[in-house]
Amino acid sequence: MSDTKSDLRPLDDADLGVVLGWRNHPRVRESSFTTHAIGWAEHRAWWAAVRLDPAREVLVYRHDGVASGVVAFEHVRPGHAEWGFYLDVEGVEERGQTLAAWLGIERAAIAHAFDARGAAVLEGHVLADNHAVLSLHRRFGFTEVERYTRAVDGAPRQVVRVRLAKPSTKESA
Q: Can you name the CATH fold of 6-126?
């Protein structure tokens, strides 16, 4: 099902300042694998690396025509993609669109992975205590593949790897 209220477009240089602000929002940082406030030099280095890596793609999510979040695909290879996202927390809250934006970004990212990227499998890694995102993923059919521990700012944190397979498009005879 297509969502005409949301879409994705490639991130470009003009977006760097605004997405850095979104990424440094305290609620986004606490849900990330890197929780420190990111500075300009680190942000520019990240962007330079993204542009050189064909296995990565970063997109701006627009909800009702307003830039509202970021979708990042990485480790993209034939038939497979991994992704993560974050929203403009303050912006979607001010517009009263938080739930709609969460649903829209998930829907748009899945469609992009399966259609534009040609993935058959989409995976993500979510901190185990990020119940809201895990619930969102389950709502869209993601299943838990494994739990593992990784260091986040030097402290061990439990992570859940989730997976969604592209729905079969076979028609029954």
A: Aminopeptidase (3.40.630)
